[in-house]
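subagent[fold] <- orchestrator: predict structure for attached chain, return tokens only, no commentary.
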Amino acid sequence: MTGTTGSAGPSEAQGTRTFPYKLVATDLDGTLLRSDDTVSARTREALAAVTAAGAAHIVVTGRAVPWTRHILDDLGYQGLAVCGQGAQVYDAGEHRLLTSVTLDRQLAGLALAKIEAEVGPLLLAASRDGLDGEVLVGPGYRVHDGPLPVVPIRDAADLWSAPLNKVYVQHPTLSDDELAAVATEVAGGLVGVTMAGAGIVELLPLGLSKATGLSLAARRLGAKAVDTIAFGDMPNDIPMFAWAAHSVAMANAHADLKAVAGEVTSTNEEDGIAVVLERLLAQP
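subagent[fold] -> orchestrator:
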């Protein structure tokens, strides 16, 4: 079993069910996780039933490993996870990185200069590479309330002192959609640009996405795109949706993701993943 939710095992009847996909790929925030960063008992049970039916569950998240590991440990998750928008393939059972892609800091600096020439000064943060990579937060950058650790810095130049997997950008007045659009237009030939959540616009290695990381992990699991169902809620899930055979957006998803989804399920608070998995398990 690739990933386990740590819940009690499915019933014997569930264990004999069939499931039409070999791989179930789920985003974390706004998708698998509720607003309190927990996974409901119903969703845990649905994922356990799916894995008992022979499929693998794989987490595919924008969070880097240090911000993901505690959630996977709480779930009892033992399989592979794709972290950092596809930059990292992480073996949760062995607590080790299998692959890691870093951002070219010279290109990222040039991209930032181009964006700032267009819209003015940006507020910056960055995620350092590695199993214990810190998230550095520059002056003025707005951090979401919660338990995830960050390291405040006074000088934005300190962001560049070690290898990074992403840079976060915010603007004092532009919306996330507006900032992402400008960044893509003026710097999209240098870096990847994605929006992963409210206040989270990211600059990534060019060509990197959740789809690239998921395809690498799927190959290790002996699965292909045609074998995969994917769940998500934000524009950074669009490449994963394009790669997977079937895509499911949460009811709380960004409009851009809903527009390309194969279907829309209930919200993350209403067990939207479980709703779909239970339906598929019930099919003859």
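orchestrator: received. Logging for downstream: The radius of gyration is 19 Å. The first strand starts at residue 23 and ends at 26.
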